[in-house]
Amino acid sequence: MPRPIEALIHASALAHNLARARQAAPDARVWAVVKANAYGHGIERAFDGLRGADGFALLDLAEAERVRALGWRGPILLLEGCFEPRDLELCSRLGLWHAVHCTEQIDWLAAHKTQQPHRVFLKLNSGMNRLGFKPAAFRSAWTRLNALPQVDEITLMTHFSDADGERGIAHQVAVFRAATQDLPGERSLANSAATLRHAGVLSDWVRAGILSYGSAPDHPHHDVVHWGLRPAMSLRARVLAVQQLEAGDTVGYGSSFTAEQPMRIGVVACGYADGYPRLCPTGTPVLVDGVPTRTVGRVSMDMLTVDLTAMPAAGPGSEVTLWGQASNGAMLPIDAVAMAAGTIAYELMCALAPRVPVRAVD
Ligand SMILES: *Cc1c(COP(=O)(O)O)cnc(C)c1O
After folding, report:
1. pLDDT of residue 200
2. β-pairing verdict for 263-268 and 304-307
């Protein structure tokens, strides 16, 4: 028997979440952002649930090839554009749309031989200071691109640093409006947080990443229930063994947990080598047979321990849901586990370890 742990990818949840993005931005087209192997879900496994999107956005050229290999003939966008001149050949061959964020990328296009002009997303650095042309350089970049026979339509794009937080997007929207005034073309501004929280933001193309996978982009300000999102990934394992503790007994490495009274502890076949964060402290929420309880003691490489004191019926073989959906339909948002570990759901999804078998369901 294989070790009792697996991750499930729920196609119906992906489709449901994508529909939420459409509902929030009814006039926009929706990119399903599938970079980082669909945020750890697996591009091939997530494809069924996300095929209702208007296009797929990613940044690895090999991932673009995988989406084409699935038979997708619609738009694919390279969010960081090309990394070297010969990447343009693949763009021509596969009909990829690509971001243009620096002058080198324009130089490469100008030297590129192609029959088929490329659709490009010209990126403005409106304050994030990662990729994109500064406002003062934006118009001349547009003019230069627009004059190239290698270029078809130009979409104007920027990315928000604080769509999920206090500062919001107004300051960047103002910079974007000023820099793009009078320039023709479609606009693409909103990520998940902006799509849900700032629905009015001008965007012909929204870029739905994390919301598609069932995490609240502005957690803990709002949760998935508030946004009507469903977990697309469930990490489930089973109880391997049970230990009866007396008051004063400790659990696990470092003896970081001491029982104050008699307790029943379940040992679960999941550890940090499966992608469960070692930083999750005692008290991190977990479901056993779909019933909420907590972890106790340190997470080790292959095992972690949970409190079964209040669940006498639970024992070896009981289902443990580390995040996502339990078999009985109970839900543990991945955001709650990420918060306990001091991180965000994006990181947990992307860190699901290769040794965990993954199964597409629904
Ligand atoms: C990853 C990414 C997104 C998606 O962000 P989410 O917060 O996951 O919605 C959108 N735009 C760009 C440029 C990205 O790199």
Report:
1. 74
2. antiparallel
Which residues does the chain have with pLDDT short of 70? none
Q: Which domains does the chain have, with CATH numbers?
A: 11-215 (3.20.20.10), 233-361 (2.40.37.10)
For the chain, the residue count is 362
- Between the CA of 34 and the centroid of ligand 1 the distance, in Å, is 9
On whether the pTM is more than 0.85, the answer is yes
Give yes or no for residue 191 CB within 6 A of ligand 1: yes
Rounded CA separation 206/125 (Å): 17
Residue 192 in contact with ligand 1 by CB distance below 6 A: yes
**Residue 242: per-residue pLDDT:** 98
If you measure from the C-alpha of residue 195 to the centroid of ligand 1, how many angstroms do you get, rounded to a whole number?
11
Q: Whose structure tokens read 């023709």?
A: 184
